[in-house]
Amino acid sequence: MHSSCVFKKADELLRSRSKLFHEKEVHVVSFKWIDYSPELKVYDGDNISELDLGILNINVSKEKTCVGTLQDDYAPCPNGATVSIFSQCQRCASTWISRLECIFEPSGCESCSSDFCEKEHSVYLAFLGKYPKIGMTRKARLKQRLIEQGADAYALLATVDHRLKAREEERTLSNMLNIPQRVGHKKKLAQMARKLDRTGMQTTYRGIKNRTAVGELRYLRDYPIREPLRNAPRLRPTAGIHRGKMVGLKGRFLIYESSGLQAIDLSDLPGRKLRIRS
Ligand SMILES: [Zn+2]
Ligand SMILES: [Zn+2]
Predict the structure, then answer these.
(1) Any idea which ligand is nearest the CA of 103?
(2) Residues whose CB is under 5 A from ligand 2 (ion)?
(3) Closest to 227 measured CA to CA, from 80, 128, 90
């Protein structure tokens, strides 16, 4: 073998090794949709930046720690608190909500004096593909909330004074119309591989309209994904390695190609550490 070839080989090997070990660790602090643009923010110990989701090469931690405070300037959690359901500890969340539990189970919102709970709320009907669901959210966040869920269409059912009332109304309508408050991930992912059945959706909508007051049916169709996908993606556990080329995003799922279509739940990332390889 020619000596320059040997050097070239060694050089390549070194480069590929350093490539292999070029890793950085970041803390995921938020995932949200701004209209139809997804935004995943990470903190590297010095700065907040947006993670490019085009090519995925990440190793996700099992543990979650509080994302800190995101208002104006970023401040990491002073306690580095471990978190589970919520991505903030109660202390860091206190700038915007007095009882974190109110997110899912509002109680005493007439007096919980939280800006978050006291504002007007909307109760809505949403379609995830052909599956209808009833939900509620702050009125100002309605469209964002629907996009977060990857809804294909929606209609307004009611507007109420505060969060507790919204939750009660949501339950009442859900029972009366026999429509669930949740659509599981398997159904959502399966719908991505089907052509949107507008006729079926309109039939269900008309059935509901016959039974209760409901606003106009509106479609939400500008997600950065080309549907229908060739088949339903498989949801991978959040923790662990995700490597592949992004296919598209809808709701909380990023779909990527890695020996078939895979899905990662981006809403489960805030609080986790990512080791990013580049
Ligand atoms: Zn905290
Ligand atoms: Zn409350």
Answers:
(1) 2
(2) 102, 106, 109, 112, 117
(3) 128
